[in-house]
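PROTEIN DATA CARD
Card holder: PRD13 protein
Chain length: 178
Origin: Ramphastos sulfuratus
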Amino acid sequence: QTSRTPATSVSAESCIPAGLRLGPVPGIFKLGKYLSDRREPGPKKTAVPPVFQVRMVRGELVDEAGSSALEWIGLIRAARNAQEQTLEAVADLPGGQIFYRALRDVQPGEELTVWYSNPLAQWFDIPVTATPTHDEKGEERYICWYCWRTFKYPNSLKAHVHFHCALSHGRPFLHHDH
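Structure generated from the sequence above:
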């Protein structure tokens, strides 16, 4: 999540057990900064984005080259919603090192995607909830309570409020429903 090129996806080649910890995540932690409602950020590419396959080897998750998670953990995409999320970002102590933890058994072929655990989201002042509204077609939408921009996914809205909304002025998330 440190560069603007996460058009790469990371998928499980073997079953990844629930509770497995990866990390720590190196660099400045900006999970979701480049999250978009679209699957790939930036212009549509004609080539298929590269897929990193990772597998369990002697209790550790490694890529095809045998590299540890520190080499590729930054390529794991931010989850747009809870349904596609397979990992959560956690820290043992507020302000401590950040790890990713498997929320459930991840099956072979499944993409790894991550979002903040509730305590970590609160530590970083990322909204924990997003209440959907329905547009004229009856589809769920998430609306920024500062600038009224509309999003398809709850985590896209949360990332927008934290990283991009000019009208939020860095104000903390207001804990009330709209």
